[in-house]
């Protein structure tokens, strides 16, 4: 008798992640992942982050507090909002994520009569029908279906904005940083490869180290050293998308070597830089 064939059962402890772009969804990046032990440090994205939880529970902090989101729910974070991410249960979580540029969401909002850059009333959102449509859009993109994926994404975003979106409140202007803090940010931006110490940075802007660290974090959501790593990762993404070798990128953005770039890159994006680059540059 032939050997009995048993169906393959996926090991729930195995992590996987794929980060990519799809020509049918301009100005939008995508992630499909299952994480168990991966933990995202405090970080930001220049885009919106709209994650549809497909299994397990994700727990994360964000400007509004802390959220736990399970299947059928969405984890939504706006551009520039500092957030984290880790498993809310030992089994981890699986999700599909859209990272649409600000202009993409603003365009959908305008069609709904919304003005300005839309925000959301909450971050962890229980909206199974919206999640179902957005998951279908994500899966269509994975299959290469340009029309279906783009139509479903716009439909899902419109549903999300109608049910949980909000316009900017009045003419509220983003608070202006203290001149010393803004100067510190400019100095860090121009010194990715040779940054000053906190003491040196504080002396150059005329504040004490403790006062600068506290004021910087209050304004930007991250202390100076973490903000510097965020700048480095953002710059690395641009260089990797342009096809630069990973080792060269690590040196150019100020990391000691490729393993240092890989560690920080994974803590921000969930995938190593080489995999990120291959996915973006694949035909």
UniProtKB/TrEMBL annotation:
It comes from Nocardiopsis alba. This is AraC family transcriptional regulator. Keywords: Activator, DNA-binding, Transcription, Transcription regulation. PROSITE patterns: HTH_ARAC_FAMILY_1, HTH_ARAC_FAMILY_2. SMART domains: HTH_ARAC (SM00342). The keyword Secreted does not apply. Residues 182-279 form the HTH araC/xylS-type domain. It comes from the Bacteria.
């Amino acid at each position: 008798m032939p050997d009995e064939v048993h169906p393959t059962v996926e090991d729930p402890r195995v992590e996987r992640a794929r980060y990519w772009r799809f020509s049918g969804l301009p100005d939008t990046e995508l992630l499909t992942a299952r994480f168990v032990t991966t933990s995202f440090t405090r970080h930001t994205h220049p885009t919106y982050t709209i994650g549809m939880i497909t299994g397990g529970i994700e727990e994360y902090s964000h400007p509004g507090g802390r959220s736990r989101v399970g299947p059928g729910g969405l984890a939504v974070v706006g551009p520039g909002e500092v957030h984290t991410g880790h498993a809310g249960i030992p089994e981890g979580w699986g999700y599909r994520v859209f990272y649409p540029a600000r202009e993409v969401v603003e365009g959908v909002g305008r069609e709904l009569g919304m003005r300005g850059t839309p925000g959301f009333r909450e971050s962890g959102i229980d909206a199974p029908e919206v999640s179902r449509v957005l998951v279908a859009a994500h899966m269509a993109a994975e299959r290469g279906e340009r029309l279906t994926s783009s139509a479903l994404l716009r439909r899902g975003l419109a549903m999300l904005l109608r049910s949980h979106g909000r316009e900017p409140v009045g003419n509220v202007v983003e608070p202006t940083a203290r001149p010393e803090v803004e100067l510190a940010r400019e100095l860090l931006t121009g010194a990715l490869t040779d940054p000053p110490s906190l003491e040196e940075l504080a002396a150059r802007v005329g504040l004490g180290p403790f006062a600068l660290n506290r004021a910087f974090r209050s304004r930007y959501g991250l202390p100076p050293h973490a903000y510097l790593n965020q700048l480095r990762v953002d710059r690395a993404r641009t260089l990797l998308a342009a096809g630069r070798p990973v080792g060269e990128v690590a040196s150019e953005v100020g990391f000691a070597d490729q393993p240092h770039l890989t560690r920080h890159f994974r803590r921000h994006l969930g995938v190593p830089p080489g995999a990120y680059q291959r996915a973006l540059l694949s035909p």
